[in-house]
Write a structure and sequence with these properties.
Mean pLDDT of chain A: 90
Oligomer: homodimer
Strand content of chain A: 15-25%
Radius of gyration of chain A: 22 Å
């Protein structure tokens, strides 16, 4: 059976890196000293093997370790455990990338819609997409629905809940989703087209089951989920119960310890995100161009039979930057702007300018 | 309604810290610029407020921010979201600690057994407890059961699965738990006392439901769960369905970005861990004495009506270090030694030496 190859970035002296790599291979497989492995079959088929150690330009080392695919039990939680369970506790170790055999890839949900499906559902056959957020939290459902209408008239493609909007006393999920979706349905009947509305699904599994029912009953056409908040295994199971595209949110990913391209790109894609939000360069987070490019690549690059996930750069973007962003990310991209539109004196005009900028940026 | 106070460790220049703190308060509440908050009620009751900024000895700043309790919706996932959802993406920000109002604390499961319950179930009325691990993974159920018997004869108090043992082809959960628990029952019938056996519950929610049934059917007396692997909200819901003590494992916590005392101590305790494993100083992880002391304190210190969680230092401990560890952690502690016992030439003798050292260390 083909093995997994896990790539770690390890800070270590040149003297100690070989021993460290060997320790890491044990930690992420049998979690005992080699002396405690008394069985030849285990030593051969279960113990992790150091495949290569190479110095990096930044002074750290790239360590490639082969991990036995069988140790994952073909389960999401257990796969994460084998890749970075205990190693996450070593400050000197980052999980940088992973190569999975096809048999394991096909055990995960993977995007059911992907970029092609999102284009079909939004009607944006070419060029980048435009996404905005309903916020600030604290607004009652009818106000959020009004904001949706304003954004729809502006011509954006997707309207998502702010990730902070959940099921609070001032905006119950059932009431809010019904109110916004009703406006979406009205707009669609009147104009033949309405932005997809993606309410935020955040909560415990029991609460999520109930909200899933509401999503279905109201005919919602997309959802927003933060896998790190609800748990990646729950995310994967939810995907299998949803028949609409899923937009992944990076909340609580603490993305610097697991490489962001791997977590927000590959992992969320493997689990089934059709689109994935990440903090873009030049915004209010410190991700640089190289990091953002790597995330977009991880989301879109050909990978076995896995559908492409739509990159969604966000986090302090402005309308003025749309051409630059489209130039950088290319057409298979959805731009997400929230606060800077909502802070404008004329929110409607600003939203329209955003939608037009996105449509005009790609020729 | 009383507010939450979240404490962040922020790396910033003295010139910029006030503006950064204000941005953080917005990020973790309304996630828009203040100009976009047009409603007075939201500005007063929902927007986060910077309560204090103080320089730290390490050159960073302590920033205390009041967050509206209502924004949590009294839900686990959403509470984490409000505390550290987007802020986790800022490399310069660490969630250091949190003060929760009683109304929110009582919305969480909290330990149902805690230290007192674990003492009652193990019969260790005073002094520290001894815990060992079944490993390496790859061993079939009958071999793991034999190892359990050896550890039982050695006189340890708890025998846990290695956290890497899940439901793999070479050791199915159902078969393994039945095999080990059968030996535990035999030992108890023969001697009147047997170590609690804590199998590892790791997997997706559907798989966990099935394993929960097995845990009940087999009369298992404790379980091991890694909240960060299965997701903290799932962990909280599982707790409510379990009627045995829960031992929390730190796998995948990447504990340096959320302060370890908060995540492994307070959070896991709040969610209902009766005992919590963490890497001790002097082992194979880089946690120092101060960090370990802070984790133990977070687990045990009086906190509203929340039962105390048993600290379980682990990660490369040796029998020789038992007196030092007991001296440091005190009697309300369970020592966990795995690899160094299993690597010994005479595993049984080493395990007995461990149990005796633990029993003898506290007078």
């Amino acid at each position: 059976m083909p093995w997994i190859t896990a790539h770690y970035r390890v800070e270590s002296s040149a003297d100690e890196i070989e021993a460290f790599a060997q320790t890491l291979a044990l930690e992420q497989s049998v979690e005992v000293p080699l002396a405690a492995v008394r069985d030849g079959w285990i030593a051969e088929h279960i113990v992790g093997k150091v495949r290569s150690i190479a110095p990096r330009a930044d002074g750290a080392f790239d360590v490639a370790i082969a991990l036995a695919t069988a140790t994952t039990g073909w389960d999401v939680a257990q796969t994460i455990n084998m890749l970075f369970g205990n190693a996450s506790l070593h400050a000197a170790v980052q999980l940088a990338d992973v190569e999975l055999p096809l048999s394991l890839v096909t055990a995960f949900p993977r995007p059911r819609f992907g970029i092609a499906g999102l284009r079909a559902r939004t009607g944006v056959v070419a060029g980048p997409l435009a996404c905005v957020a309903l916020k600030p939290q604290g607004m009652p459902p009818r106000e959020l629905a009004k904001l949706y209408r304003l954004f729809a008239q502006a011509g954006v493609d997707v309207v998502k809940d702010d990730h902070g909007i959940a099921d609070q006393s001032y905006s119950r999920f059932a009431e809010r989703v019904a109110a916004v979706q009703q406006v979406a349905d009205e707009v669609r009947r009147a104009t033949g087209r309405a932005p997809l509305y993606a309410p935020s699904l955040v909560g415990s599994p029991v609460a999520l089951s109930e909200r899933l029912r509401i999503v279905r009953d109201e005919g919602v056409s997309m959802v927003l989920i933060a896998p790190a908040l609800i748990g990646m295994p729950v995310f994967a199971e939810l995907i299998m119960k949803l028949d609409v595209p899923v937009l992944a949110h990076p909340a609580y990913t603490g993305a610097t310890r697991v490489a962001a391209p791997l977590l927000l790109g590959k992992f969320f894609r493997l689990l089934g995100a059709d689109a994935t939000i990440f903090p873009s360069f030049g915004g209010r987070f410190a991700f640089d161009r190289k990091m953002c490019g790597a995330i977009a690549t991880a989301a879109r690059a050909p990978w076995h039979d896995v559908a492409a996930t739509l990159p969604v750069p966000a986090g302090g973007m402005t309308v003025e930057r749309v051409p630059e962003l489209v130039d950088f990310y290319g057409p298979d991209t959805m731009l997400l702007i929230g606060g800077s539109i909502l802070a404008a004196d004329d929110v409607a005009a600003r939203a329209r300018a955003f939608a037009n900028a996105v449509k005009g940026a790609f020729r």
